[in-house]
Amino acid sequence: MRQLSILGSTGSIGQSALAVVARYPHRFNVRILAAANNVTLLARQIEMFAPDMVAVINREKARELKSLIPDTSSVDVLWGEKGYLVAASHDMVDTVLLAMVGAAGLMPALAAIDAQKKVALANKETLVMAGEIVMARAAEKQVTVYPVDSEHSAIFQCLEGNRQRDLRKIFLTASGGPFRLIPRERFSSLTPKDALSHPTWDMGAKISIDSATLMNKALEIIEAVHLFKLMPDQVEVVVHPQSIVHSMVGFSDGTVMAQMGLPDMKAAISYALSWPERLDLGLDFPDFPDLAGLFFEAPDREKFPSIDFAFKALEAGGTLPGVMNAANEVAVDGFLNHAIGFLDIFHIIETTMSAHKVIPSPGVADIVAADGWARERAGAMVETI
Ligand SMILES: NC(=O)C1=CN([C@@H]2O[C@H](COP(=O)(O)OP(=O)(O)OC[C@H]3O[C@@H](n4cnc5c(N)ncnc54)[C@H](OP(=O)(O)O)[C@@H]3O)[C@@H](O)[C@H]2O)C=CC1
Ligand SMILES: CC(=O)[C@@H](O)[C@H](O)COP(=O)(O)O
Ligand SMILES: [Mn+2]
């Protein structure tokens, strides 16, 4: 029986994970849940899954949560960064699903690795900020990081039974987002509502905007380089609007292996939690004759400069990928709050990256400081636009 901690339980990944868990109550025991602000949903999750401990963003939310659960409840309510660190590393759990959004995921991820938990990683921002440190720490602690991100789960699955040294390149598929067919001239008038309607996946707000700008693919390029120990030129982004092929691996003999399935994150989540077993999730296969073709095209890198940002960040290394990530988080927030336009997102990321003095081979403290610097710099741009 897996003893689970789920950080980000109220989010899109967290809720899908709990749907998997609810199907398999004799395999998974939910011991800890962590959320940020959505205490109403967290209270329902407490009622349903009876965890021993929960963590929320601050003391006020902890108080609010306590007012929503019965006085007789024995659940321990923690809060703040310390609460998340405990949630990620407590002795009562053996497996941690890291499904918080954004840079806040980094320290809990390191805490889970240090505590030698089985780590199912959805939070890609962690690897963008500190991929070298995180993967080195995982190797040192003999911790396997099971990817949850659909593309990386696909690559992980295609690599199974193959030798890493036979891998020549990976083809990272991208849906192209909701604006694939919209001319760039119309980008300045696009609204958060337009950007939130992803063509194939149902996801949280931040990653949905990242898909619309292709910053999601930028983050995923860096995530893949660290997870699979690749050189940047071994990663090729291929636009595949149907989101049936979740990514592909090309081997030295010219063979390409692809992993396919309907776009539903429950498959990747459950594989990360139950590897090497595959659970029956009641999911259908794609109806191949009905698909009217799967197609692939090169991304338009002029319309979407994000992929170039990723390769630039990888080339410079050090603190630049984390700065790219932080500038993106601030810009996405500004866009969602109607403070800036869609095109400003690219401008803010590019300008913040160009202004950054890269620290090579940074430690965690340098990365956190660079993240703070980038947030201030990007935040000032949001204010003045
Ligand atoms: N959704 C998807 O299909 C996929 C997501 N991912 C990645 O998984 C992660 C989660 O994505 P998704 O589920 O879509 O996001 P959501 O926005 O749906 O959920 C985010 C979760 O994180 C919590 N949270 C937000 N901010 C903080 C914070 N500062 N500290 C602690 N917890 C916080 C939220 O709490 P609350 O709601 O209570 O405020 C919520 O539980 C992201 O890194 C994303 O890139 C990767 C592949 C696919
Ligand atoms: C489900 C998942 O893994 C997302 O990261 C998805 O890939 C987003 O779709 P895009 O390909 O549009 O970025
Ligand atoms: Mn993905």
TrEMBL record:
Binding-site positions, Mn(2+): D149, E151, E220
MF terms in GO: 1-deoxy-D-xylulose-5-phosphate reductoisomerase activity; isomerase activity; manganese ion binding; NADPH binding
Domain 1-deoxy-D-xylulose 5-phosphate reductoisomerase N-terminal: 4-131
Gene behind the chain: dxr
Keyword Manganese attached: yes
All copies of domain DXP reductoisomerase C-terminal, residue ranges: 260-376
Gene Ontology biological process terms from the UniProt entry: isopentenyl diphosphate biosynthetic process, methylerythritol 4-phosphate pathway involved in terpenoid biosynthetic process
Cofactor(s) this protein cannot do without: Mg(2+); Mn(2+)
Xref: InterPro entries: DXP_reductoisomerase, DXP_reductoisomerase_C, DXP_reductoisomerase_N, DXPR_C, DXPR_C_sf, NAD(P)-bd_dom_sf
Chain positions recorded as NADPH binding sites: T10, G11, S12, I13, A36, N38, N123, E125, G204
Catalytic activity annotation: 2-C-methyl-D-erythritol 4-phosphate + NADP(+) = 1-deoxy-D-xylulose 5-phosphate + NADPH + H(+)
EC nos: 1.1.1.267
Keyword line: Isomerase, Isoprene biosynthesis, Magnesium, Manganese, Metal-binding, NADP, Oxidoreductase
Annotated function: Catalyzes the NADPH-dependent rearrangement and reduction of 1-deoxy-D-xylulose-5-phosphate (DXP) to 2-C-methyl-D-erythritol 4-phosphate (MEP).
Binding positions (1-deoxy-D-xylulose 5-phosphate): K124, S150, E151, S175, H198, S211, N216, K217, E220
PANTHER family in the record: 1-DEOXY-D-XYLULOSE 5-PHOSPHATE REDUCTOISOMERASE, 1-DEOXY-D-XYLULOSE 5-PHOSPHATE REDUCTOISOMERASE, CHLOROPLASTIC
Protein name: 1-deoxy-D-xylulose 5-phosphate reductoisomerase
Family classification: Belongs to the DXR family.
Gene3D superfamilies, sorted: 1.10.1740.10, NAD(P)-binding Rossmann-like Domain
